[in-house]
Design goal:
single chain; about 525 residues; alpha/beta; Rossmann fold; six-stranded mixed β-sheet; 22 strands; about 25% strand
């Protein structure tokens, strides 16, 4: 890998960035070369996203410099960076939901006809070709708001491909993608490397790097602690450098299911929001016991999120289901109904749906049970703190203060706040939708340990995940969804990666032994 002393197409030299109370980057030097992919690894809070923001023109460094082809530059913004051929795809998508897919792909660069008007036909054709290249089966005229998070991620990638970038920077690009979509993306990245594009790839999924990464750059506490050819560093060494200590892999604790049913769902169905006559969830029946972790696995569009939202009353009377909680049948027409029945849902998009980013951990953790914290109709911070502080300690939140805005916390600590918020409601059933999305390997282990501790205490847990190793490790029992239907169910000892994945794939199902 090149160094700042031997410049590539894009470099940072001795760059530092200081935010209030934290040195996010400390004297970092790194270069990207044409036709090579650098995997940027590190725990949440290591400085990866800050470095990416500087390279993409979002943030100015406080010290050091950015160089393009060996010449110092000062980006005035992302448009300026794009003018130099540098395109970044952030984990938090920058799309416009009220526009179509095609309009998002070419936003600000719309093709024009001879009269100077937007050529929608040409824009649709070009967008369609990019979507086909990414194996995304949606029409270019589809409103972006109708797509799931994983599909929107592919639209963001299509927009980057449309620019013909010289440098492509991706932050966890596969975090919400299905397996076949990941395969398509990795194939395209290999093609871009062959075409001479320099790529910086931030990920927590080491398996994606095999055959793709040329170099590895590892960050810890704002510093670059290692930069080596990928072939010369072992997985265990990467993890040790990331966390600064040896870390044993997560092992599941003793199974703790009591056999006492906490939740039974019969014939859950939800009409598809845009396809008339079709269903996002169709006739799904399941149960979960106290002390059990039930895994929901499926590819993008399988209906995992929609099923959990149905059980939480998000879709109101549009959804149908017979729901029994602790031997009592309940009607769930709103999240308030669900909370009253003892259900809790930590959503897939924690920043958008699970947290108020400008508030502190204490206020966020108390949001779902504010009535318990009021006196004479007014919210009492002291009561709120006394209630949620032990819960935040229980999930081992790492924050300078409980009043620090959760916007400043790492993804893993934000997820801990979401967990504490729902534990404050004393639920019978805790539903977790992609609970470790965008979280580093060490924080994942902490979340897994919390889940098993909660189950050991008698809580019923339902975890929906698109990460098969996660489901295989944490779940006592696995339900597989495909195209809105329940297609298979496995006890923990029956489940293998091959059997679960075969069941999840659309089409004929012959589950391997």
């Amino acid at each position: 890998m090149s160094t700042a002393a031997n410049p590539g197409v894009l470099c940072v030299r001795a760059v530092s960035k200081i935010f209030p109370g934290v040195r996010a980057l400390d004297n970092v030097s790194l270069c990207l070369e044409p036709g090579r992919l650098v995997a940027l690894l590190g725990e949440n809070g290591a400085g990866k996203s800050t470095l990416m923001s500087i390279l993409a023109g979002v943030t100015m460094p406080d010290e050091g410099e950015v160089l393009v082809e060996g010449r110092p530059v000062r980006f005035a913004g992302t448009r300026d960076a794009r003018a130099h051929g540098i395109v970044a795809i952030f984990q938090e998508l920058s799309l416009t939901p009220n526009l179509t897919v095609a309009e998002n792909v070419f936003l600000g660069r719309e093709p024009r006809n001879v009269l100077g008007f937007i050529d929608y036909e040409a824009m649709s054709r070009a967008s369609g070709a990019l979507l086909e290249r990414l194996n995304l089966d949606v029409a270019p005229e589809t409103p972006l708001a109708a797509l799931r998070v994983g599909q929107q991620q592919l639209v963001e990638i299509a927009r980057a491909l449309s620019v013909n970038a010289r440098v492509l920077i991706l932050d966890e690009p596969t975090s919400a993608l299905a397996r076949h979509e990941i395969a398509s993306l990795l194939k395209i990245l290999a093609e871009l490397k062959q075409a001479g594009v320099a790529i910086l790839y931030i990920t927590h999924k080491f398996e994606e790097l095999v055959g793709l990464a040329d170099d590895v750059a590892i960050m810890r506490d704002g510093r670059l602690v290692a930069a080596r050819p990928y072939a010369e560093i072992a997985h265990a060494e990467i993890v040790r450098l990331m966390v600064g200590r040896e870390m044993s892999p997560f092992t599941v604790a003793t199974r703790t299911s009591t056999g006492e049913e906490a939740l039974r769902v019969e014939s859950a169905s939800l009409p598809h929001p845009t396809r008339r006559g079709d269903y996002a969830v169709r006739d799904v029946t399941l149960h979960v016991c106290r002390g059990e972790v039930l895994g929901l696995f499926g590819l993008i569009g399988a209906g995992r999120t929609e099923l959990l939202e149905t059980l939480f009353g998000v879709h109101g009377s549009r959804a149908e289901a017979r729901v029994v909680v602790a031997d009592h049948e309940v009607r769930l027409r709103s999240p308030e109904d669900a909370i009253a029945a003892g259900l809790a849902l930590a959503p897939e998009d924690r920043k958008h749906d699970g947290l108020v980013l400008g508030l502190g951990a204490r206020e966020n953790a108390g949001l779902a049970c504010t009535r318990a914290h009021t006196r004479w109709g007014l919210l009492t911070p002291a009561r709120e703190g006394a209630h949620v502080r032990p819960l935040l300690e229980r999930v081992r939140l790492k924050a300078r203060s409980l009043d620090e805005p959760v916007l400043n916390l790492s993804g893993g600590n934000q997820q801990k706040v979401v967990l504490a918020k729902w534990l404050a409601t004393h639920p019978r059933v805790l539903m977790l939708d992609e609970p470790t999305r965008g979280i580093d390997v060490n924080a994942k282990n902490e979340i897994y340990a919390h889940i098993r501790e909660l189950a050991a205490g008698g809580l019923a847990v339902i975890i929906a995940s698109s990460e098969l190793p996660e489901i295989l490790a944490i779940a006592d029992r696995i339900i597989v969804l495909c195209q809105g239907r329940k297609v298979a169910e496995f006890a923990h000892h029956e489940a293998t990666a091959e059997r679960v994945m075969q069941a999840a794939l659309p089409g004929p199902r012959s589950v391997p032994p």
